[in-house]
TrEMBL record:
Keywords: Membrane, Transmembrane, Transmembrane helix. This is DNA repair protein. The chain crosses the membrane at residues 6-27. It comes from the Bacteria.
Length: 256
């Protein structure tokens, strides 16, 4: 065997080994990319589904329900392309298509959850922030038109305002029921100040009027409880009476 042939065989062997390594690397990179896409899509689908099911009923509307259904279906279709072995995915996609076809008649099964304390208010605020993040991501991937994304951003701000209104109103009402007029006044006052800072305050005229009425009511109760009762004995009154009696006794001794 000539030296030239040996050299050619060695070079060919090196090339083949290089091609095998490149193919293996490409296959491994493809597997990793599919696994990454699968994990990301699965997580985003879970977030859409959780929001659709857990959002308090007073904030969930048919358009919002359908928006989440549309996004979940699009994400599920993308997931089906990289995870064809999932038997439940096709059924879920068909179920979402059925719900989307209902339009405004889609059933809303989310129960209303009154926001009565700060922890509940924070939980709903986190949900609204999660919704905004989902829509922003969908817009970046062209799953949601920019104009529609902008409209929903405004709707999320409106929902946040309504969340504050409900929280301050419920907190004030709860304080009134517990006989805590000063705390109630503070809650209603915070609600009024919050609404007056809104740029589109005309949209919330009804809520502002309601909070102002409750604020006036709470303020009247505070003033009423602050007035002393004339016939009710008090330590201060008894002390002044004692000092007056002692002063009269001293004057009597001096003039006698």
């Amino acid at each position: 065997m000539s030296p030239l042939l040996i050299t050619v065989l060695i070079v060919a062997g090196i090339v083949v080994l290089g091609l095998i390594a490149f193919i293996n690397h490409s296959l491994e990179a493809g597997k990793l990319e599919r696994a990454r896409q699968k994990a990301e899509l699965t997580d985003r689908i879970r977030r859409c589904s959780n929001l659709s099911e857990s959002m308090p009923g007073q904030f969930m509307t048919p358009p919002l329900k359908q928006l989440l259904n549309r996004l979940e279906m699009q994400l599920s279709i993308n997931l089906n392309k990289v995870d064809r072995s999932n038997p439940q995915l096709s059924g879920r996609i068909q179920d979402l298509r059925t719900q989307i076809a209902m339009g405004e008649a889609v059933p809303i099964r989310n129960p209303a959850q009154p926001v009565q304390n700060e922890a509940q208010a924070k939980e709903v605020r986190f949900q609204l922030e999660a919704l905004h993040a989902i829509l922003s991501h969908a817009q970046q991937e062209a799953l949601l038109p920019p104009q529609e994304a902008k409209q929903w951003a405004g709707e999320i701000r409106h929902m946040l305002v309504m969340l504050h209104c409900e929280f301050f109103n419920n907190q004030g009402q709860q304080n009134l029921q517990q006989g805590q007029a000063r705390q109630a006044r503070l809650a209603f006052e915070r609600g009024v100040q919050y609404l007056r800072k809104q740029p589109d305050i005309k949209r919330y005229e009804q809520q502002l009027k309601q909070l102002e009425t409750q604020l006036a009511r709470a303020n009247a109760m505070v003033l009423e409880t602050a007035q002393p009762v004339a016939d009710e004995p008090s330590e201060l009154g008894e002390g002044l009476k004692t000092l007056d009696e002692e002063d009269t006794w001293k004057k009597k001794n001096i003039y006698d």
